[in-house]
Amino acid sequence: MLTVTTLASGSSGNAALVSCGRTHILLDAGISARRITTALKALGVPPQDLSAIVITHEHHDHVSGLGVLCKQIPAPVLASPATCRYLGDKLPQFRGRLQGQEPGTGVQLGEIWTESFSTPHDAAGSVGYSFSAEGRRLVLCTDLGYVTPEVKRAAEGCDLLICETNHDEDWVRTGPYPYYLKQRVLGDRGHLSNEAGAELAALAVESGARTVILAHLSSENNTPAHARAAVCRRLAAMGCDPERDICLAVAPRKETGPVYRLEEDGAAVAFALRGAALC
Fold it and tell me: What is the 3-state secondary structure (H, E, C) of the chain?
């Protein structure tokens, strides 16, 4: 059964675990190796059992723990060719572990088919990922300035979407960030606003998604309640009750979130680490 758990989500660090059967894929390594391995063990996954590490792009909040983690586990590291070149320069001792995957292509990793798609972000070769197994599909789409046709195609028809809702545009404009940083966040190679993320979530839900997890929230220019309210308004406008029709949640910033298990009907059941069902 296909499952996903966020280990951290935000500008201070990002990581998630996607699993099916004995296949376990770490998605980004933007927190310390110790935090990653501790979280994996709490989820019942020995770090040595990781099948692969896939990297969305080379920014610090997505790769800060990768070097130490590669010393501890033998898993291959997959990323776009441009990201692999960057990582190979920064971590030359692990260059042989890097496997370039062209955006728009897929590869079978154990029981999980893994596809990447290009995302518009100020990085060497930023991508999002789609993971499929046992007839179910989940998509992670964060760190993008706007929603491209490639992003739309990836989100359409998925069962679960991890969707960026990084900021409130007005909060960014009136906040304390310096001008250049405001321009970066709001630009076409920055991050999705709450409203833009809500549009992507609506697209996914309209095409069948039953679970939406809001991710990569700014600590300065957003709050979980504010992001969720924006998405709720958009979903309600299309006739979807987010309290009844789908599971809508926000990924925790600095701790492991629930385990989302995709059921045969496409719905996801969320379980806390201690096994209590949440939605």
Answer: CCEEEEEECCCCCCEEEEEECCEEEEECCCCCHHHHHHHHHHCCCCHHHCCEEECCCCCHHHHCCHHHHHHHCCCCEEECHHHHHHHHHHCHHHHHHEEECCCCCEEEECCEEEEEEECCCCCCCCEEEEEEECCEEEEEECCCCCCCHHHHHHHCCCCEEEEECCECHHHHHHCCCCHHHHHHHHCCCCCCEHHHHHHHHHHHHHCCCCEEEEECCCCCCCCHHHHHHHHHHHHHHCCCCCCCCCEEEECCCCCCCCEEEECCCCCEEEECCCCCECC
Residue type, 28: D
pLDDT attached to residue 279: 58
CA distance to 13, 206, 210, 241, 260, per residue, from 246 (Å): 27, 11, 5, 7, 13
Cα–Cα dist 82/21, whole Å:
31
Residue identified by tokens 């960014």 is: 172
- pLDDT of 268 reads 77
pLDDT at 189: 95
Q: Are 231 and 248 in contact (CB under 8 A)?
A: yes
Question: In the structure encoding, which two tokens stand for residue 139, read together?
Answer: 């998509």
- Residue 18 vs residues 3, 5, 109, 163: alpha-carbon distances, Å: 6, 7, 11, 15
Q: What is the pLDDT of residue 276?
A: 47
Query: For each successive 10 residues of the chain (279 residues), what is the average pLDDT?
Result: 97 97 98 98 97 98 97 97 97 96 97 98 96 97 97 97 97 95 95 98 97 97 97 97 94 96 80 59
Q: How many other CB atoms are there within 10 angstroms of residue 42's CB atom?
A: 12
Q: Are 32 and 4 in contact (CB under 8 A)?
A: no
Single-letter residue type at 84 = C
